[in-house]
Q: What sequence folds into this?
C-alpha cells in the first residue's frame, strides 16, 4: 500500500515537472537569425477599434453634457486620434464627423497568437 502511494506521488511530481522542463528548454532556444521574419506578428498587434453597442453618440467635447455632433454606428469605420480619461477623440470615416465618444462603448479588439 505504501509503495503504491510512493509510485503515484512520483508520477504526479514527474507530470508536474514536465511543463517546467519544457518551458526552460523553450526559453533557452537561440534568438531568430537576422533576416528572418519580423518580431511583430499580425496577431501581436492590437486589433481595430470596435463599438460594443448598436450606436454611440459623437460629442463636441469629452463630456456627456456637450453638444451632440452625430452618431457612430457599429458598422462604421473610425480612427482614434487621442484619448483623454475614458473618452476618445475620433473621426468617423463613413460620415467624416470628428468628435469625442465614451470609452465605455468603444474599445480595442484583442487578438491572440496561438503558437
A:
Amino acid at each position: 500500500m505504501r509503495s503504491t502511494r510512493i509510485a503515484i506521488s512520483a508520477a504526479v511530481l514527474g507530470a508536474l515537472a514536465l511543463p517546467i522542463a519544457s518551458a526552460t528548454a523553450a526559453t533557452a532556444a537561440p534568438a531568430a537569425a537576422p533576416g528572418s521574419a519580423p518580431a511583430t506578428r499580425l496577431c501581436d498587434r492590437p486589433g481595430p477599434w470596435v463599438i460594443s453597442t448598436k450606436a454611440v453618440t459623437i460629442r463636441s467635447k469629452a463630456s456627456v453634457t456637450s453638444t451632440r455632433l452625430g452618431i457612430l454606428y457599429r458598422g462604421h469605420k473610425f480612427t482614434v486620434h487621442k484619448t483623454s480619461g475614458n473618452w476618445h477623440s475620433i473621426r468617423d470615416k463613413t460620415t467624416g464627423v470628428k468628435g469625442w465618444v465614451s470609452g465605455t462603448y468603444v474599445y480595442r479588439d484583442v487578438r491572440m497568437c496561438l503558437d
